[in-house]
Amino acid sequence: MILKIDYRKVKLLIFVCLVLAILVIGYSPQSLAEAKTAEVKTSGEGLVSRVAPGEFLPISVKLINFGKGQRVDVTINYQILNSNNELVFSETETVAVETTASFVKNIQIPLDLPSGKYVASSEIIYEGQKVPASSNFQFTVERKIAGIFVSQLIVYGIITVLIGILFAVVSRLIIKKRRASRLSPHEYSNVPKQERLFYELISDIIMQMRYYSGHKAIEIAENIDGLVVQEGSGKVLKINKDPAEIIALLILQYQKQIGKKMRVLPRRTDRETKTRLRPIDKNLDIIKKYFR
Fold first, then answer.
1. What pLDDT does 223 receive?
2. Which of 38, 205, 260, 261 is in Cβ range 3.0-4.6 Å of 72 for a Cys bridge?
């Protein structure tokens, strides 16, 4: 007698056995314990990179619970280590975490903490923990003067000194340029040749006066009767009186108000120029006698 095997029933039986085996293994006491065990991860970062002794160091903390809604009491250890990896500060607190917890922890830096580089770390501990969880970041402790960090104060000081030096150099260049412009002789090529000598001579006298007295020289020239000068530059625009008289009055006013003697030298020294300057020399002799 030949037995007939129903392969459909055999396959179904094998499938049922496999499912039962998976269920038994999956819901063993060990797996149930693991399912109930929460896994908490942490991330922390500093909100500032530099603080002064006595100030608060804010630390942003975020805890994430992967235990499917199971509440876990998490102990957080805050530590500050110096550059030699020595503990200089520590603090502990406990936080209940169901899913996520985000907050800012403010740690006051000790007043006697020396300036330098430090590391702030936050480490979490909870029941059933398998993997250590911690985070850390670097920050700097630096003294303050009048509410400003010392390094910033040094930078501000250097910038101020550089600006002062730059201002002094620019001011000196401007003054030299203005002085040079005051000493630059004016051109009178548009003035007739027979009158040009006196225009140049009076202009040079005003230029010498400006070297010592600045704008006051132009004011003196403007008050000379018969003399018209350009405001600001002192250029002679018109001579309405005897040039010898104007030159004599100009020098007289200068020596009275400034208190300095003046040498009158023409731009040209040819014979014709000397001849035309004789009346002026006579007036200058009178001025010299007056001031003896």
1. 85
2. 38
Write down the pLDDT at residue 212: 74
- Tokens representing residue 181 in the block: 């412009």
pTM greater than 0.70 (yes/no): no
Helix pair 278-290, 243-257: axis angle to 10 deg = 30
121: its two tokens: 């770390």
- Contact of 137 with 124, CB cutoff 8 Å: no
Q: Other C-beta atoms within 10 Å of 256: how many?
A: 11
Q: What is the DSSP string of the chain?
A: -PPPP-HHHHHHHHHHHHHHHHHHHHTSHHHHHHHH---EEEEEEES-SEE-TTSEEEEEEEEEE-STT--EEEEEEEEEE-TTS-EEEEEEEEEEESSEEEEEEEEEPPTTPPSEEEEEEEEEE-TT--S-EEEEEEEEE--EETTEEHHHHHHHHHHHHHHHHHHHHHHHHHHHHHHHHHTSPPP-TTS-HHHHHHHHHHHHHHHHHHHHHTHHHHHHHHTSTTEEE-TTT--EEEE-S-HHHHHHHHHHHHHHHT--------S--SHHHHHHTHHHHHHHHHHHHHT-
Domains (ranges, CATH) in the chain? 38-149 (2.60.40.3880), 185-290 (no CATH)
Cα–Cα separations (whole angstroms), residue 105 to 115, 206, 256: 22, 77, 80
Tell me the average pLDDT across 74-101.
Answer: 91
Structure token digits, residue 221:
């020239």
